[in-house]
Amino acid sequence: MSDEVQAALARRRPVVALESTIIAHGLPRPRNLRVAHELEQAVRDEGAVPATIAVLDGRPHIGLDKDQLERVAGEDGIRKLGHRDLPLAVAAGASGATTVSATALLAARAGLRVFATGGLGGVHREWTLTQDESADLGLLARTRITVVCAGVKSILDVAATLQRLETLGVAVAGYGTSRFPGFYLTDSGHDVDWTLRTPDEVAAVMRAQDALAAPESALVVAHPVPEAEQLEPALHARVLDEALRECAARGVQGQAVTPFLLDHLMRHTEGASLEANLAAVRGNVRLAGRIASAWTRA
Ligand code: PSU
Ligand code: MN
User: Fold this and answer.
1) Counting atoms of ligand 1 from 1, which one is nearest the CA of 26?
2) For a Cys-Cys bond, which of 9, 32, 51, 184 suits 276, CB 3.0-4.6 Å?
3) What cofactors does the UniProt entry give for this protein (predicted)?
4) Annotation marks residue 19 as catalytic
5) How far apart are CA 159 and CA 241, in angstroms?
6) pLDDT tens, residue by residue, 138-194
7) Is 66 one of the catalytic residues?
Protein backbone atom coordinates (compact mmCIF):
# COMPACT_ATOMS: atom_id res chain seq x y z
CA MET A 1 0.00 0.00 0.00
CA SER A 2 1.32 3.47 -0.76
CA ASP A 3 2.08 5.61 2.29
CA GLU A 4 -0.65 8.04 1.31
CA VAL A 5 -3.34 5.36 1.06
CA GLN A 6 -2.19 3.70 4.27
CA ALA A 7 -2.30 7.02 6.14
CA ALA A 8 -5.74 7.85 4.75
CA LEU A 9 -7.17 4.48 5.82
CA ALA A 10 -5.63 4.73 9.27
CA ARG A 11 -7.25 8.15 9.75
CA ARG A 12 -10.55 6.99 8.22
CA ARG A 13 -10.19 9.46 5.37
CA PRO A 14 -12.07 8.68 2.10
CA VAL A 15 -10.20 6.51 -0.41
CA VAL A 16 -11.32 5.49 -3.91
CA ALA A 17 -9.91 2.41 -5.66
CA LEU A 18 -9.29 2.76 -9.40
CA GLU A 19 -8.60 -0.10 -11.79
CA SER A 20 -5.68 -0.15 -14.21
CA THR A 21 -6.92 -2.36 -17.08
CA ILE A 22 -8.87 0.57 -18.45
CA ILE A 23 -5.56 2.48 -18.54
CA ALA A 24 -3.34 -0.28 -19.96
CA HIS A 25 -5.81 -2.05 -22.27
CA GLY A 26 -8.95 0.06 -22.56
CA LEU A 27 -7.54 3.40 -23.76
CA PRO A 28 -5.04 4.35 -26.48
CA ARG A 29 -1.51 5.52 -25.71
CA PRO A 30 -0.31 8.13 -24.92
CA ARG A 31 -3.61 9.64 -23.91
CA ASN A 32 -4.12 6.84 -21.37
CA LEU A 33 -1.44 8.24 -19.06
CA ARG A 34 -2.99 11.71 -19.09
CA VAL A 35 -6.35 10.13 -18.31
CA ALA A 36 -4.84 8.14 -15.43
CA HIS A 37 -3.56 11.36 -13.86
CA GLU A 38 -6.78 13.20 -14.60
CA LEU A 39 -8.87 10.50 -12.88
CA GLU A 40 -6.66 10.58 -9.80
CA GLN A 41 -7.00 14.38 -9.71
CA ALA A 42 -10.79 14.12 -10.00
CA VAL A 43 -10.84 11.91 -6.90
CA ARG A 44 -8.70 14.47 -5.06
CA ASP A 45 -11.00 17.30 -6.15
CA GLU A 46 -13.78 15.51 -4.28
CA GLY A 47 -11.65 15.38 -1.13
CA ALA A 48 -10.70 11.69 -1.39
CA VAL A 49 -7.42 9.83 -1.94
CA PRO A 50 -7.08 7.85 -5.19
CA ALA A 51 -5.68 4.31 -5.04
CA THR A 52 -4.95 3.01 -8.51
CA ILE A 53 -4.30 -0.73 -8.28
CA ALA A 54 -1.90 -2.85 -10.36
CA VAL A 55 0.67 -5.63 -10.00
CA LEU A 56 4.30 -4.63 -10.63
CA ASP A 57 7.11 -7.19 -10.65
CA GLY A 58 4.95 -9.66 -8.79
CA ARG A 59 3.81 -7.21 -6.10
CA PRO A 60 0.23 -5.98 -5.86
CA HIS A 61 0.17 -2.22 -5.34
CA ILE A 62 -2.69 -0.24 -3.78
CA GLY A 63 -1.88 3.33 -4.82
CA LEU A 64 0.71 4.05 -7.49
CA ASP A 65 3.30 6.81 -7.66
CA LYS A 66 4.07 8.73 -10.87
CA ASP A 67 6.67 6.25 -12.18
CA GLN A 68 4.47 3.27 -11.41
CA LEU A 69 1.50 4.84 -13.19
CA GLU A 70 3.79 5.46 -16.17
CA ARG A 71 4.77 1.81 -16.25
CA VAL A 72 1.13 0.71 -16.26
CA ALA A 73 0.28 3.13 -19.07
CA GLY A 74 3.34 2.59 -21.24
CA GLU A 75 5.13 -0.68 -20.55
CA ASP A 76 5.10 -3.13 -23.44
CA GLY A 77 3.73 -6.54 -22.61
CA ILE A 78 1.94 -5.43 -19.46
CA ARG A 79 -0.60 -8.17 -18.84
CA LYS A 80 -4.31 -8.02 -18.18
CA LEU A 81 -4.98 -9.66 -14.83
CA GLY A 82 -8.36 -10.95 -13.73
CA HIS A 83 -8.58 -12.16 -10.12
CA ARG A 84 -7.66 -15.71 -11.10
CA ASP A 85 -4.40 -14.43 -12.56
CA LEU A 86 -3.21 -12.73 -9.37
CA PRO A 87 -1.40 -15.70 -7.77
CA LEU A 88 0.15 -16.62 -11.11
CA ALA A 89 1.43 -13.09 -11.67
CA VAL A 90 2.74 -12.79 -8.11
CA ALA A 91 4.60 -16.11 -8.24
CA ALA A 92 6.04 -15.30 -11.68
CA GLY A 93 7.15 -11.81 -10.64
CA ALA A 94 5.07 -10.49 -13.55
CA SER A 95 3.52 -7.06 -14.07
CA GLY A 96 -0.06 -6.50 -15.06
CA ALA A 97 -3.02 -4.19 -15.00
CA THR A 98 -5.96 -5.34 -12.90
CA THR A 99 -9.50 -5.74 -14.22
CA VAL A 100 -12.59 -4.99 -12.16
CA SER A 101 -12.44 -8.46 -10.63
CA ALA A 102 -8.78 -8.29 -9.60
CA THR A 103 -9.05 -4.66 -8.48
CA ALA A 104 -12.15 -5.32 -6.38
CA LEU A 105 -10.48 -8.30 -4.71
CA LEU A 106 -7.27 -6.44 -3.87
CA ALA A 107 -9.13 -3.29 -2.80
CA ALA A 108 -11.43 -5.18 -0.44
CA ARG A 109 -8.49 -7.14 1.05
CA ALA A 110 -6.76 -3.81 1.70
CA GLY A 111 -9.82 -2.41 3.49
CA LEU A 112 -11.09 -0.12 0.70
CA ARG A 113 -14.82 0.03 0.21
CA VAL A 114 -15.45 2.29 -2.80
CA PHE A 115 -14.25 1.65 -6.33
CA ALA A 116 -14.84 3.48 -9.63
CA THR A 117 -14.56 2.22 -13.19
CA GLY A 118 -16.09 2.74 -16.63
CA GLY A 119 -18.29 -0.25 -17.32
CA LEU A 120 -18.34 -3.69 -15.73
CA GLY A 121 -17.63 -6.81 -17.72
CA GLY A 122 -20.53 -9.20 -18.14
CA VAL A 123 -22.22 -11.77 -20.32
CA HIS A 124 -21.14 -11.50 -23.94
CA ARG A 125 -23.53 -11.77 -26.85
CA GLU A 126 -23.51 -15.35 -28.23
CA TRP A 127 -22.80 -16.62 -24.75
CA THR A 128 -24.48 -19.88 -25.72
CA LEU A 129 -21.63 -20.52 -28.16
CA THR A 130 -18.64 -19.04 -26.35
CA GLN A 131 -19.60 -19.23 -22.64
CA ASP A 132 -17.87 -15.85 -22.37
CA GLU A 133 -18.94 -14.23 -19.12
CA SER A 134 -16.57 -11.80 -17.42
CA ALA A 135 -15.12 -12.95 -14.12
CA ASP A 136 -16.17 -9.52 -12.82
CA LEU A 137 -19.67 -10.82 -12.04
CA GLY A 138 -18.71 -13.86 -9.98
CA LEU A 139 -16.17 -11.89 -7.99
CA LEU A 140 -18.67 -9.12 -7.19
CA ALA A 141 -21.00 -11.80 -5.83
CA ARG A 142 -18.44 -12.55 -3.10
CA THR A 143 -16.77 -9.24 -2.39
CA ARG A 144 -18.03 -6.45 -0.13
CA ILE A 145 -17.30 -3.39 -2.24
CA THR A 146 -19.27 -0.55 -3.81
CA VAL A 147 -18.57 -0.20 -7.52
CA VAL A 148 -19.53 3.00 -9.30
CA CYS A 149 -19.85 2.28 -13.02
CA ALA A 150 -21.82 3.36 -16.08
CA GLY A 151 -23.56 -0.01 -16.08
CA VAL A 152 -21.96 -2.80 -18.07
CA LYS A 153 -20.23 -2.39 -21.38
CA SER A 154 -22.74 -2.05 -24.19
CA ILE A 155 -20.74 -4.55 -26.26
CA LEU A 156 -22.33 -7.17 -23.98
CA ASP A 157 -25.71 -8.84 -23.73
CA VAL A 158 -27.02 -6.33 -21.19
CA ALA A 159 -30.27 -8.19 -20.39
CA ALA A 160 -28.38 -11.43 -19.73
CA THR A 161 -25.84 -9.60 -17.59
CA LEU A 162 -28.57 -8.01 -15.47
CA GLN A 163 -30.10 -11.44 -15.05
CA ARG A 164 -26.75 -12.90 -13.93
CA LEU A 165 -26.32 -10.09 -11.40
CA GLU A 166 -29.75 -10.95 -10.02
CA THR A 167 -29.00 -14.67 -9.88
CA LEU A 168 -25.65 -14.06 -8.23
CA GLY A 169 -27.24 -11.80 -5.61
CA VAL A 170 -25.40 -8.60 -6.46
CA ALA A 171 -27.28 -5.45 -5.41
CA VAL A 172 -27.82 -2.98 -8.28
CA ALA A 173 -29.16 0.57 -8.03
CA GLY A 174 -29.42 3.34 -10.59
CA TYR A 175 -27.94 6.63 -9.45
CA GLY A 176 -30.48 9.36 -10.14
CA THR A 177 -32.23 7.14 -12.66
CA SER A 178 -34.60 4.18 -12.82
CA ARG A 179 -32.97 3.03 -16.08
CA PHE A 180 -29.85 0.92 -16.24
CA PRO A 181 -27.16 2.93 -18.05
CA GLY A 182 -25.58 1.62 -21.25
CA PHE A 183 -21.90 2.57 -20.79
CA TYR A 184 -21.43 4.70 -23.95
CA LEU A 185 -25.17 5.37 -23.81
CA THR A 186 -27.17 7.08 -21.08
CA ASP A 187 -29.87 4.40 -21.17
CA SER A 188 -29.39 0.72 -21.97
CA GLY A 189 -33.13 0.27 -22.50
CA HIS A 190 -33.51 -1.76 -19.28
CA ASP A 191 -35.07 -0.78 -15.95
CA VAL A 192 -33.49 -1.08 -12.54
CA ASP A 193 -35.57 -1.85 -9.45
CA TRP A 194 -33.90 0.69 -7.15
CA THR A 195 -32.85 4.30 -7.45
CA LEU A 196 -30.44 6.15 -5.14
CA ARG A 197 -30.17 9.92 -5.32
CA THR A 198 -27.39 11.10 -3.01
CA PRO A 199 -24.01 9.84 -1.73
CA ASP A 200 -25.57 9.61 1.75
CA GLU A 201 -28.27 7.29 0.41
CA VAL A 202 -25.56 5.07 -1.07
CA ALA A 203 -23.66 5.05 2.23
CA ALA A 204 -26.87 4.05 4.03
CA VAL A 205 -27.18 0.99 1.78
CA MET A 206 -23.55 0.09 2.49
CA ARG A 207 -24.19 0.28 6.23
CA ALA A 208 -27.30 -1.86 5.82
CA GLN A 209 -25.29 -4.46 3.89
CA ASP A 210 -22.92 -4.74 6.84
CA ALA A 211 -25.68 -4.70 9.44
CA LEU A 212 -27.56 -7.50 7.72
CA ALA A 213 -24.46 -9.71 7.63
CA ALA A 214 -25.62 -10.55 4.14
CA PRO A 215 -23.33 -12.66 1.97
CA GLU A 216 -20.19 -10.66 1.25
CA SER A 217 -21.48 -9.27 -2.03
CA ALA A 218 -21.01 -5.94 -3.79
CA LEU A 219 -23.23 -2.93 -4.41
CA VAL A 220 -23.28 -1.76 -8.01
CA VAL A 221 -24.07 1.96 -8.32
CA ALA A 222 -25.04 2.43 -11.96
CA HIS A 223 -24.35 6.04 -12.90
CA PRO A 224 -25.24 7.11 -16.45
CA VAL A 225 -23.09 9.24 -18.73
CA PRO A 226 -24.85 12.63 -19.23
CA GLU A 227 -27.06 12.55 -22.32
CA ALA A 228 -25.13 15.42 -23.95
CA GLU A 229 -21.93 13.36 -23.75
CA GLN A 230 -23.21 9.95 -24.81
CA LEU A 231 -22.31 8.29 -28.09
CA GLU A 232 -24.99 8.90 -30.69
CA PRO A 233 -27.24 5.79 -30.32
CA ALA A 234 -27.66 5.12 -34.07
CA LEU A 235 -23.90 5.37 -34.65
CA HIS A 236 -23.35 3.10 -31.63
CA ALA A 237 -25.70 0.44 -33.00
CA ARG A 238 -24.16 0.47 -36.47
CA VAL A 239 -20.52 0.39 -35.44
CA LEU A 240 -21.05 -2.16 -32.68
CA ASP A 241 -22.62 -4.51 -35.18
CA GLU A 242 -19.54 -4.25 -37.39
CA ALA A 243 -17.24 -4.68 -34.41
CA LEU A 244 -18.95 -7.88 -33.30
CA ARG A 245 -18.80 -9.32 -36.81
CA GLU A 246 -15.13 -8.42 -37.15
CA CYS A 247 -14.33 -9.95 -33.76
CA ALA A 248 -15.97 -13.24 -34.75
CA ALA A 249 -14.42 -13.24 -38.23
CA ARG A 250 -10.92 -12.85 -36.78
CA GLY A 251 -11.50 -15.49 -34.13
CA VAL A 252 -10.65 -13.13 -31.26
CA GLN A 253 -11.15 -14.98 -27.97
CA GLY A 254 -10.83 -14.81 -24.19
CA GLN A 255 -9.25 -11.75 -22.59
CA ALA A 256 -8.67 -10.14 -25.97
CA VAL A 257 -12.37 -9.77 -26.81
CA THR A 258 -13.19 -6.70 -24.71
CA PRO A 259 -10.10 -4.63 -25.67
CA PHE A 260 -10.65 -5.56 -29.34
CA LEU A 261 -14.25 -4.36 -29.33
CA LEU A 262 -13.49 -1.13 -27.45
CA ASP A 263 -10.65 -0.34 -29.86
CA HIS A 264 -12.73 -1.12 -32.93
CA LEU A 265 -15.49 1.18 -31.74
CA MET A 266 -13.02 3.95 -31.05
CA ARG A 267 -11.43 3.76 -34.49
CA HIS A 268 -14.73 3.54 -36.35
CA THR A 269 -16.43 6.43 -34.56
CA GLU A 270 -13.51 8.85 -35.10
CA GLY A 271 -12.85 8.78 -31.38
CA ALA A 272 -16.43 9.63 -30.36
CA SER A 273 -16.77 6.39 -28.38
CA LEU A 274 -13.56 7.26 -26.54
CA GLU A 275 -14.96 10.64 -25.51
CA ALA A 276 -18.19 9.04 -24.27
CA ASN A 277 -16.19 6.40 -22.38
CA LEU A 278 -14.05 9.08 -20.75
CA ALA A 279 -17.07 11.21 -19.85
CA ALA A 280 -18.61 8.18 -18.15
CA VAL A 281 -15.45 7.30 -16.22
CA ARG A 282 -14.88 10.90 -15.10
CA GLY A 283 -18.41 11.16 -13.75
CA ASN A 284 -18.05 7.81 -11.98
CA VAL A 285 -14.76 8.73 -10.36
CA ARG A 286 -16.18 12.01 -9.03
CA LEU A 287 -19.28 10.31 -7.68
CA ALA A 288 -17.12 7.62 -6.06
CA GLY A 289 -15.15 10.37 -4.30
CA ARG A 290 -18.38 11.79 -2.91
CA ILE A 291 -19.65 8.35 -1.86
CA ALA A 292 -16.35 7.56 -0.13
CA SER A 293 -16.65 10.86 1.74
CA ALA A 294 -20.23 10.10 2.79
CA TRP A 295 -19.14 6.61 3.87
CA THR A 296 -16.29 7.80 6.09
CA ARG A 297 -18.49 10.55 7.60
CA ALA A 298 -21.23 8.08 8.47
N1 PSU B 1 -14.28 -0.07 -18.15
C2 PSU B 1 -13.83 0.71 -19.19
N3 PSU B 1 -12.82 0.16 -19.99
C4 PSU B 1 -12.26 -1.08 -19.72
C5 PSU B 1 -12.75 -1.87 -18.63
C6 PSU B 1 -13.76 -1.30 -17.87
O7 PSU B 1 -14.31 1.82 -19.43
O8 PSU B 1 -11.35 -1.49 -20.45
C9 PSU B 1 -12.13 -3.24 -18.34
C10 PSU B 1 -12.34 -3.60 -16.86
O11 PSU B 1 -11.06 -3.86 -16.31
C12 PSU B 1 -13.16 -4.86 -16.88
C13 PSU B 1 -12.69 -5.50 -18.13
O14 PSU B 1 -12.98 -5.65 -15.73
O15 PSU B 1 -12.67 -4.37 -19.04
C16 PSU B 1 -13.57 -6.66 -18.57
O17 PSU B 1 -12.78 -7.56 -19.29
P18 PSU B 1 -13.36 -9.03 -19.61
O19 PSU B 1 -14.60 -8.74 -20.42
O20 PSU B 1 -12.26 -9.71 -20.38
O21 PSU B 1 -13.66 -9.65 -18.28
MN1 MN C 1 -14.29 -12.61 -21.33
Assistant:
1) 8
2) 184
3) Mn(2+)
4) yes
5) 17
6) 999 999 999 999 999 999 999 999 999 999 999 999 999 999 999 999 999 999 999
7) no
Residues 6+ apart with CB under 8 A from 145: 17, 104, 107, 108, 112, 113, 114, 115, 218, 219
Determine the CATH number of domain 1-112: 3.40.1790.10
| Ligand 2 center from residue 298 Cα (angstroms) | 37
Q: What is the ipTM of this complex?
A: 0.94
Which residue, by CA, sits nearest to atom 20 of ligand 1? 255
**Quick check: 181 and 117 in contact, CB under 8 A?**
no
Residue in 217, 123, 127 with CA at minimum distance from that of residue 172: 217
Residues with CB under 6 A from ligand 1: 19, 21-22, 25-26, 99-100, 117-119, 121, 134-136, 255, 258, 262, 277, 281
Nearest atom (ligand 1) to Cα of 99:
11
Which ligand has the nearest atom to the CA of 259?
A: 1
User: Which amino acid is present at 81?
Assistant: L
Domain 117-297 has CATH 3.40.1790.10: yes
